[in-house]
Amino acid sequence: MAYQRALAHVIACSEAGLLPERLNQEGMERALVVLQQNLGASGRTKQVRARAEPATAAARQPDSATTVTGKRPALAKYPRCVALAEALKPVLEATCPAGAGGYGGALQANLHPADVEMLGGTALIRAAMRRAAGQLGWRVRTVGYAGEHLVVVIVQDVREAPAEVSYVLEKDFARRGQEMIERMSAHGNEEALRKLGPAPVERQTQAFLQAVQGAMGANPGAWR
Questions:
Q1: Other residues' Cβ atoms within 10 Å of the Cβ of residue 108
Q2: Cβ(156)–Cβ(4) under 8 Å?
Q3: How much is the pLDDT for 16?
Q4: pLDDT value at residue 13
Q5: Closest Cα to residue 106, out of 168, 143, 171, 156?
Q6: CA-to-CA distance for 52 and 46, rounded, in angstroms?
Q7: In 3-state terms, the chain is what percent helix, strand and coil (to 5)?
Q8: What pLDDT is attached to residue 88?
Q9: The predicted structure's pLDDT at residue 4
Q10: Farthest-apart Cα atoms in the chain, separation
Q11: I want to staple 105 with a disulfide (CB 3.0 to 4.6 A). Which of 25, 95, 160, 166 is the partner?
């Protein structure tokens, strides 16, 4: 399965509330079962995603990617959002596999709630992600999850990649899978984990935070 399709399926199951809240060993095993059970039938991922949509407009959360009328919120025009989007463009671009022609990009940042509040909230961060991704030509999906101690924001390019770069994306997916296997095998072995270095999400979160610091330094007025 291509990386883009796999990530889209995981996001759809997560949005539908099908995945366990804790991804410890038991949680990961349960998550794999859920992902497998909801994969296979044509259109299943779309059906799972549809179940995640609120039944009524009143059920929509303020952090929704769209308003009740279907229009993008005005957040994208805020100076803070514009500044953050500009800083995030190279970060998003760097997530695209080399040689894939700009396809296959996805960024996940795991943030402290206090940092999110300082930036203007999850909705503004997602708006900045969409703005930056749009300038790169992506067709995007964003996800935001806010917990008591952790906020997760994700942006993903959901374009169908052309055939000529599919091999590159498949190769990158295999590389990511191998890294995941190595990290799971090294669980509990601090020395082995240290040799592997930061996990992909840690690296992306650090890149996100560095971009934020750069944006705040370059345009401090936008953060007042």
A1: 17
A2: yes
A3: 66
A4: 75
A5: 156
A6: 10
A7: 60, 10, 30
A8: 96
A9: 65
A10: 53
A11: 95
Query: How far is it, in rounded angstroms, from Cα 12 to Cα 16?
Result: 6
Going by their DSSP bridges, the two strands 106-111 and 140-146 should be labelled as unpaired
The one-letter amino acid code at 219 reads: N
Residue written as token pair 């169908």: 160
The encoded tokens of residue 160 equal 């169908």
Q: pTM of the predicted model, to two decimals? A: 0.68
Q: What is the pLDDT of residues 20-36, one digit of tens each?
A: 777 777 777 777 766 77
The two structure tokens encoding residue 87: 């800083």
| Cα–Cα distance for residue pair 41/43, rounded to 1 Å | 6
Token pair of 219 as six digits: 């345009």
Rounded to whole angstroms, how far apart are CA atoms 118 and 210? 15
Calculate the average pLDDT of the chain: 78
Would you state the structure tokens that stand for residue 221, as one six-digit string?
Answer: 């007025």
Q: What letter represents residue 222's amino acid?
A: A
Tokens 């345009």 belong to 219
Rg (CA), the chain: 18
Give me the sheet containing 140-146, strands edge to edge. Answer: 106-111, 151-157, 140-146
CB 140 within 8 A of CB 133: yes
Neighbours of 67 (CB within 10 A): 13
Interatomic CA distance for residues 193 and 175, integer angstroms: 17
Give per-10-residue mean pLDDT for the chain (224 aa).
71 72 71 68 41 35 38 73 94 94 92 91 93 94 83 90 91 86 80 86 92 88 79
Helix (H) or strand (E) holding 108: strand 106-111
Cβ proximity of 79 and 87 under 8 Å? no
